Amino acid sequence: MSLRRSMEQLRPAHTQKLDLQEKVQSLLVEGPIKAEDYEAAIVIGWYKNNKKKFDLSTSGISQKVYDAVMSNPAALDAGVSIAQKIANHFGNKNAKAEQYGRAKSSLTSFWKRFGATDTTPKTDILIGDKRLSLKIGLAQLMSGGRAESTATFYAALNSVKKLEKDPQFQKVNKVFENFVTSTIAPGQLRPIIKKGNNPVVNAAEIAHKNCMKELGILFQENRKFKIAFAREAMSGYEKYGSNSNSAAEFMVVASHDGSKVSIHSIDDDSYCERIADAMRLQARFKTSSRKVRGLKTGEYNFWSVVSLIVDAMAGEKESIDEGILDTLKSKMRGIITRVIRGVKNFVMRGVNSLMKFLGVTPEISVNTKIYFK
Q1: In sequence order, what E strands does the chain have?
Q2: Where are the strands (E) in 38-116, listed by range?
Q3: Dihedrals φ, ψ of 122, to 5°?
Q4: 303, 307, 309, 244: which is closest to 115 by C-alpha?
Q5: Are residues 91 and 200 in the same domain?
Q6: What is the DSSP string of 198-253?
Q7: β-strand partners of 309
Q8: 44 contacts: CB under 8 Å, gap ≥ 6
Q9: Residue 318 clears pLDDT 90, i.e. is over it
Q10: 106 with 119: CB under 8 angstroms?
Q11: Average pLDDT, the chain
Q12: Above 50 in pLDDT, residue 373?
């Protein structure tokens, strides 16, 4: 029985190893709460800080998002902290706060002429007359299809008119023409790309690579154009009109726990330049599962997009990443400490059980002479 118990004690160590793997994996893949949850938390926090009645019906927050925030104390605490720092910056504590992501927007005639139809506001939060775009963690400045990307391209051209005659500008413009608009694939796109026998997908993949190469060259050759492209991606000035509530005028950059917040005007050329230098260009496919009458068909819609991503807002990497990294390190230390303690206890229990089974009494002697080399 003692030997069986000793063998049984091998299981906890194996289980603890699996537990460690699972916990580490969950920490690595577990992302922060959704951006819209943070936005809602800030609006809720704004009223909480000012001790004013919060009205869900006029807040722009859906019931689903409100419930998600109220059931997440960490998110709510972050929202309260960020809201306080926004109030300190602008000094408009009595203003109305609203989550603006679901508001209806009107596109300018300039934007419509390229066939672009996406009306998602660049403004995430409206506080009084301050139009704020919130960025926490990875910041996606844009993710636009062919029409949206072409419109952004020509919006940036408005700042550098003479560039229209540049051969490199024409190269990029031609690349956008080869982007795929909404098309149906019989299944998930990755295996189709890997197989390489779909002419539409193959042509678009070539266009994506050419876009990253040629647009990247244009950015390198003309900084003024690159900065103008970044500014439009952040603000939507040309898309909605610079005075529209849907066009963001300030960037609010915060850590995940809301302890660090910085606020920048999108009209600040030096800030836009920092963002332009920090952004990463991607041209890729975007997909969505196709449904008919609410049921999945197994097919996928796919289309080409240009994305601009900033790993951490320029010059503020610490304030964005620090919160989640510190949390991860703290959790890892706790997990590793518990596992080591568990292994140590298992080894001691295992040795004692084995000794008892064999009927062995250990002889222990101590050498009190210590030699230093």
Answers
A1: 97-99, 125-127, 130-136, 139-144, 183-185, 250-254, 261-265, 280-292, 295-310
A2: 97-99
A3: -80, -25
A4: 303
A5: no
A6: -HHHHHHHHHHHHHHHHHHHHHHH-HHHHHHHHHHHHH-HHHH-TTSTTS--EEEE
A7: 140, 280
A8: 54, 59, 61, 66, 69, 70, 76, 79
A9: no
A10: yes
A11: 81
A12: no
- Is the dihedral angle over the CA atoms 325, 330, 334, 336 positive or is it negative? positive
Distances (CA, A) of 352 to 14, 178, 365: 19, 72, 18
Range of the domain at 55: 35-99
Res. 280: pLDDT tops 80: yes
Distance from C-alpha of 6 to C-alpha of 354, rounded to nearest angstrom: 7
Regarding whether 359 and 300 lie in a shared domain, the answer is no
Q: How confident is the model at residue 92 (pLDDT cuts 50, 70, 90)?
A: confident
- Measured distance CA(210)–CA(190) in Å, rounded: 20
Q: Express each pLDDT in 200-210 by its tens digit.
A: 999 999 999 99
47 and 68 belong to one structural domain:
yes
Is a pLDDT exceeding 90 seen at residue 324?
Answer: no
Whether 95 and 105 map to the same domain: the answer is no
Helix, coil or strand: residue 162: helix
User: What is the pLDDT, as a whole number, of residue 140?
Assistant: 87
Query: Do 274 and 334 have their domain in common?
Result: no
Greater pLDDT, 268 or 136: 268
